[in-house]
TrEMBL record:
<dbReference type="InterPro" id="IPR034603">
    <property type="entry name" value="Dipeptide_epimerase"/>
</dbReference>
<dbReference type="GO" id="GO:0046872">
    <property type="term" value="F:metal ion binding"/>
</dbReference>
<dbReference type="InterPro" id="IPR034593">
    <property type="entry name" value="DgoD-like"/>
</dbReference>
<keyword id="KW-0479">Metal-binding</keyword>
<dbReference type="InterPro" id="IPR036849">
    <property type="entry name" value="Enolase-like_C_sf"/>
</dbReference>
<dbReference type="InterPro" id="IPR013341">
    <property type="entry name" value="Mandelate_racemase_N_dom"/>
</dbReference>
<dbReference type="Pfam" id="PF02746">
    <property type="entry name" value="MR_MLE_N"/>
</dbReference>
<dbReference type="InterPro" id="IPR029017">
    <property type="entry name" value="Enolase-like_N"/>
</dbReference>
<dbReference type="GO" id="GO:0016855">
    <property type="term" value="F:racemase and epimerase activity, acting on amino acids and derivatives"/>
</dbReference>
<dbReference type="Pfam" id="PF13378">
    <property type="entry name" value="MR_MLE_C"/>
</dbReference>
<dbReference type="InterPro" id="IPR013342">
    <property type="entry name" value="Mandelate_racemase_C"/>
</dbReference>
<feature type="active site" description="Proton acceptor; specific for (R)-substrate epimerization">
    <location>
        <position position="144"/>
    </location>
</feature>
<feature type="binding site">
    <location>
        <position position="195"/>
    </location>
    <ligand>
        <name>Mg(2+)</name>
    </ligand>
</feature>
<comment type="similarity">
    <text>Belongs to the mandelate racemase/muconate lactonizing enzyme family.</text>
</comment>
<keyword id="KW-0413">Isomerase</keyword>
<dbReference type="InterPro" id="IPR029065">
    <property type="entry name" value="Enolase_C-like"/>
</dbReference>
<feature type="domain" description="Mandelate racemase/muconate lactonizing enzyme C-terminal">
    <location>
        <begin position="125"/>
        <end position="216"/>
    </location>
</feature>
Amino acid sequence: MLRRLTAEPRAFALHAPFRIARGVKTVAEVVEVRVEEAGVVGRGEGVPYPRYGESVAGALAAIEAVRAAVEAGAGRSELLLLMPAGAARNALDAALWDLDVGLGRAVLPTAMPTETAVTVGIDTPRAMHAAALALGAVPLVKVKVDGEAVADRVAAVRRALPDARMIVDANESWTLDTLRAVAPALVEARVDLVEQPLPADADDALAGFAAPFPIAADESAHGIADLDRLKGRYSHINIKLDKAGGLTAALVLADAAEAAGLGLMLGCMVASSLGIAPALRLARRAAFVDLDGPWWLAEDRAGGGRIVGGRMTPPAPGFWA
């Protein structure tokens, strides 16, 4: 089996700063992988995330470390043993899925138009209200917050979008006291899901909290080994392919999470449509889908999926798998 593996960094400028509790992003830095075999090229993308100690350089080095094995024919199941979960494995896993489907060795569910959250980043309540109004009548909105002016920010978005389902994402920025204090305002705003309110290393406090709304684990949830600890603290798990280390691992994680009684949320990093395409194959199983990463780009890849009115259309035929 003769294969050729290439990996390179790519950068996509954002059309506006993306502000969350831990910082501001103005460019999406990704790693693109291509695996060629028998004239067919499989492509994948991963987003190294500093929160998990990742970098573009580190991801490229991790991919280089398994080059010989992949070019000799190592497949997706072998990657689970050769590499830890993370953006590097996600990019390679996606490229191998694309290659295997192209060569007729694998089949995936068809990507369908999907309702996705569209995110309103942290700003003043007035600015967040304006940003939410500009979205139009989207069915699902995600509101980024930190520990300041939570009730005012959420209420401002709710006034702009009275009928939308709403996710509020604190990105680990609250304490349990904050959560208790803002809970009545979140109930009044008809929030459907609160995402990762407490730091991952302090979420044991949630075990005794009777939440009046569903709570999803994001930074606290990476793989199957986390599930026992998450039960009793969270109602949902946010599966991101970059955290899980690819679609192969994410499919197994989704099965295990459902068996453990956890609902599914499907999330993403700020990425191009190539990074989102594999996740679309899981979307129909999730109660909450948050795949608006490409929406933040000033210019996405040609042929990628598009978000219109809060719904993501699949990529053009041949774009991925």
